[in-house]
Write a structure and sequence with these properties.
The structure is a single chain. Helix 1 (8-93) runs antiparallel to helix 4 and helix 2 packs antiparallel against helix 3. By secondary structure, the chain is mainly alpha-helical. It contains four helices and no strands. It is rod-shaped. It has a domain at 69-177: Methane Monooxygenase Hydroxylase, Chain G, domain 1 (Up-down Bundle), CATH 1.20.58.
């Protein structure tokens, strides 16, 4: 063997190292890419969860605000209908016998309106508000019955005072439902 020639096993070893080097580097790069991919995927999942949570909170907030708006509308309509009914009740006490039948019909329509609005309160209101509205509706019909029977002003006034007290209790329930329990009202009624 001449001195300038390298042994075969050295050439084979160098060829093997030449092949193993790029293959090893490819394996190491693949493992690093897999780890990087896993980290990116985990970050994306976290971001999606945050976005889903935010979207859910936004929808939940919108739903609560929509529900609150419906309550405000129903409560204010019931309050207005009660005020109209009470105005009619006061007017019915002072009318002549000729106008009495017309005023009773008008009161009956107003009472039906109050009844419809109490039904709506049963849907959008809390249990406490529903109970207060039902009690007040019972008082309205009790008062209506006394006016219709032409009872004395003292007997009618007794029920009118109960209606006033019931209306105040209902307003407190309204304010609790709307989250205004500690806030003073600027409207005096």
């Amino acid at each position: 063997m001449p001195n300038s020639q390298t042994p075969l096993w050295v050439s084979m070893l160098l060829a093997g190292i030449a092949l193993i080097g790029p293959l090893g580097a490819a394996c190491i790069t693949t493992k690093r890419d897999d780890k990087r991919w896993s980290r990116e995927l985990a970050r994306e999942r976290e971001r999606w969860q945050r976005e889903d949570s935010k979207r859910h909170q936004d929808l939940s907030h919108e739903s609560r605000m929509n529900w609150r708006d419906r309550r405000v509308e129903a409560y204010s309509e019931l309050h207005d209908a009660l005020m109209l009914w009470l105005e009619g009740a006061v007017k019915a006490i002072d009318v002549t016998d000729a106008e009495f039948a017309d005023e009773i019909d008008s009161m009956n329509e107003r009472a039906a309106s109050v009844r419809r609005l109490v039904s709506r309160i049963r849907v959008v209101g809390s249990r406490e508000t529903e109970g207060a509205a039902d009690r007040l509706l019972g008082l309205v019909y009790k008062h209506y019955s006394r006016i219709k029977k032409k009872q004395t002003v003292e007997e009618i006034s007794e029920v009118a005072q109960e209606i006033y007290t019931g209306r105040q209790a209902l307003k407190i329930c309204f304010r609790m439902d709307l989250g205004l329990a500690g806030v003073e009202s600027q409207v005096y009624s």
